[in-house]
Amino acid sequence: MVSDDILRFEDVVAGYDRETILRGLSFHVRRGAITTVIGPNGSGKSTAFKASFGMLPVRHGRIFYDGKDVTNHTPRQLIGAGICYVPQGRNIFPELSVLHNLELGGVAAPRGCDLGPRIEAAMNRFPVLRRKARQQASTLSGGEQKMLEIARGLMLQPRLMLIDEPSIGLSPILVEDLFGLIGDMRARGVTVLMIEQNAKRALEKSDFGIVLELGRTRIQDRAETILADPRIGQLFLGGGLEPTPAA
After folding, report:
1. CA nearest 16: which of 52, 40, 39, 44?
2. Of 18, 202, 230, 241, whose CB is crowded by the most CB atoms within 10 A?
3. Helix ranges (DSSP H) in 21-141
């Protein structure tokens, strides 16, 4: 029987050198949903993503993907299994064309795979990339560069996409476009797990939310439930909600 969860952390401990960031982190990610991870700086959000993608060793605990133990698997192994990671910041090859960036995105695809249909699908999904296919990637706007990063990740036809701070540096209009694209990915069967600085807006577009604090899961629930919790509103969503009245 296929589990409803595509990714699961069980008591994961990880960090950098002698510094421990994740202190027994446990959570699960529902298959086919958008889940947003929020929490203060230093809570372990990006560290959890790096551990998920094999970029940071797990010292204790287990990570399961699609029911299989993938603890400390390499990024290449995880890409082959269907996981894609779009890290924070700009991660393109600026001097190469948009088309060449997409082609490089398919380097880790199965040997002998015809990338032509995948490139065509990416350009159909992101028409601006088709119009600017021969331009250097450095000439794209910030929003277009983020689209290119996501399109390059989709070249691998992932089942789970990890996206760290997708809206950073984008205008409000481009942020809405970006969230629309993420919703389209979900509609096409891609599970999305993201970290987002605009926590309130991201949760409004998500199915589930995870609140991290000091390397552990403080709350995991449906996104609307987290948005409606006045304590979470004050602590993590800009204080826009009123505190719960005293009993």
Report:
1. 44
2. 202
3. 45-52, 75-81, 98-105, 115-125, 127-131
